[in-house]
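Input record (Table S2, row 289):
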Amino acid sequence: MYVLRTNADLEPWRADTAWVAFVPTMGALHEGHESLIRQAAAAARGHPGGACLVSIFVNPTQFNDPADLARYPRTIENDLECCRRSGADAIYVPGPEDIYPPGESIPIPPLPDVAILPQLEDSHRPGHFAGVCQVVLRLLRLARPHEALFGEKDWQQFRVIDAMVESLGLPIRVVPIPTMRESDGLAMSSRNRFLSPAERRRAASLALALEGAARLTDPGQAQRHMADVLTQAGATIEYAVVREARSLMPISPGTFVPGATPRRALIAARIGSVRLIDNAPWPASLAGA
Ligand code: AMP
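Output record (adenosine monophosphate complex):
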């Protein structure tokens, strides 16, 4: 596995590689990331001269809270091992000067509508998707992949990036990968390590709320159910909503036709000081779950 530490390392590697599947991450890798890397590696094997590239860069412009950036876990030795084990061919670990060269302004592309909807991420993390789009576009321009893989765990992020790639006409397939979970349903996340043992038990309420909501077929009831489960677990709810899966627009009352369009239930909640997000297809009867 090649370890590419600068753009000067990346460029010749990229020029020599016929086909690239790309997994951008912020490190602190876990089995969720491994699943993306394994699927990228499998896709690469299907293309002559194909390779799986993983990037690790903790992007400061997407953190609206400096304390959150400061405590973001950095576990590079473990990350390298994880990439190797999962079949990555190269790992790109740039410094800030490679992504944001001094004196050069790195553009923030126009944000797709799905990034700036009230109630969802933008209301709670203003500026977050501007930073995400800025760094992902920068990475896509440097890595020039044929496929880029993103986790469904960050569903709105996947939708934002897919919409950005489409609106810019980039020749890249954006591939969503299902969420990897702990045995009690908690979505794997780099932030789970900050939960105390008692908080860790309460954190399972997000998955429990989604599971219960998926058994209901009325969106209002499903939202109330999620709020009840989360409140009982002592979580502070930022949002717990059912939306159209693609546009993330609310389902207008009275217009809900089961099966007409894919829907998704989405949650953001704090357990103690730890902000967690999760989502699932809704309702289960239409998602084959
Ligand atoms: P991050 O390092 O948190 O920015 O995540 C990098 C990529 O891994 C993103 O596309 C995430 O959606 C994805 N990811 C994070 N957690 C999981 C998970 N539990 N299952 C699947 N993918 C995940």
